[in-house]
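Review form for a predicted model. The reviewer records the input and the model, then writes brief findings.
Reviewer: anonymous (R2)
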Amino acid sequence: MNAKLLSLSCSAICLAFLAGCAMWVGVTAYSQPDASPGKRFVLQGPDPRYPGGDPTWPVYSQVLKAALESKGFVEVASSPDLIIRVSYGTGEPRTSTTTTSTPTMGYTSTTQTVVTPNPDPSGMPIVSTVTTPVWDVVGSTESTSTSTSFLSTIRVEALDGASYASGKPTVVWTTLARSRNALPLETSFPYIVAAMEDYFGAVVPKEVVVQKDFDDPEVARLKDIIDQFPSNPKPR
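Model under review:
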C-alpha cells in the first residue's frame, strides 16, 4: 500500500466526513482480577513478512507502541511479561439515505374588508378591500443525500508471557475499540488508538463512548508517527 494513504490530511477531509472534526469511539475492556504481570511487552500483529500479513502493520505497530509506552509499558526484545497481540479490520460498508425537507419562501397576500362610515349621513357605509403582501412559507423542497460508513475495529490483547512460553497462553487483559464513520482505517487509526489507550488493562464491561477531536494532542502525536513514514516509497 502506498504510504501516502496513511498521511491523508485530516484538515481536508474533516468537512466531508467528520461532524465537527471529531470521532466517537466505543470502548470495552476486560482484565483479570488482581492481575499484575508487569509491563514489559513484545508486540505481535499481522506481520507482512509472513503469509496473510498486512503491509501497513509496520506503521500501525509504531502507533500502538507509542500508545503503550505512554501508559508505562516498556517494549523488550526477550523475556517479556506480556505478549501483546493486535488485530484490526473494517467491516462491510453501510449505506444510509436521508431525506430533508426545506421550506420554500415566497410572497402571499392577505385580504381584509374595511368598512368606513359614509360622510353623507344618509348614504350607505363605504366598503373597501385592502390586499397586503406577506413574505411567508409557500411550500417545501425535498432533497436526498446518501452516505456510506464503515465499522472499524481494533483489538489489543495482552497474554501472560510465562503461560505463553509454556504453550498454554492466558489472557491478562483485552481492550476493544470500535468506531463507525466514513473514513478508511488508515485515517481513523490514530483516533481509535488515542481513544482506547486509557483503557489498557482496565475493566469496562459496558461500552463507553470516547470523543476524540481533530486537534486532540494525543491524536496529533500518533498521527505524526504515521506522517514520518515516506509518502512516496520507491518500488523495488
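Findings: Residues 118 and 228 are 91 Å apart (CA to CA).
Further findings: Confidence is low (pLDDT under 50) at residues 1-19.
Recommendation: see findings above.
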